[in-house]
User: Fold this.
Amino acid sequence: MQITLINAGKRFSREWIFRGLNYTFSQEKKYAITGNNGSGKSTLLQVLSSSLLLTEGDCEWQLNNTKTAPEKVHSFISIAAPYFELIEEMTAKEFLRFHCNFKNFINNCSIENILLEANLIDAANKQIRFFSSGMKQRLKLAQAIFSDVPVILLDEPCTNLDASGFDLYYQLVENYCQKRLLIISSNDKNEYHFCDEIINIQEYKIAKAPVYI
Assistant:
C-alpha cells in the first residue's frame, strides 16, 4: 500500500497541528515521524490510519495502484499505540484469538508461535490485567506486527519496555516488517534509528496561525 498526503493540514480549535504537508509513504519502506511531546505525531498517525479526518487537504491510500476508500483502509492497517487498550479480562491467548476474527495472522502463524515470539508463552493463559506494563506492550506489538496487513503503524513502540524488550522489538521488525510499509511515531531515536526516512512534524507546524471561522 502507498499513502499520499496532499497539502494536508489538521487543526484543533484555532491551533494548527500541522499544515501544508505533502508526502508519500511507499511500500517496503520504514518511516519515522518525530517531534517534541505534544507536537502532533500521534495525530498524524491517526490521519494515516484513516481514523481521523483532515481539516484541509487530502490523504489517499492506494493498494496495487488502486485507490482505497477511507472506510475500507482499516482492513489493511494494524496499529499499536499507548492509547489503545487491551481487553484485560481476557487471557493473552483469548485476546489474540479474538483479534484474528478481524485480521488473519501472517504466514498462518499459530497463536502459540506468536506468544513464543513475544516471550509471552508462559503467560498464555493469564488474564491481561495481571500483566506487567512491559508484557502488555509486547502483546500490543505482537497483535500489530503479526497481523496480515501491508501497513503497520507503531506509536511509541517501546513504551514500558526494558533492554530485552527493545531487543525483541528490533527482532520483530527485522523478521516481519521488511516487505511492508512501517511508520513509527516517536521522539526516541532508539525506536526508529533503522528507518529509511524521517519526517519532523515540527517543520509543518504553524505557530499562532490565524484561523477565521
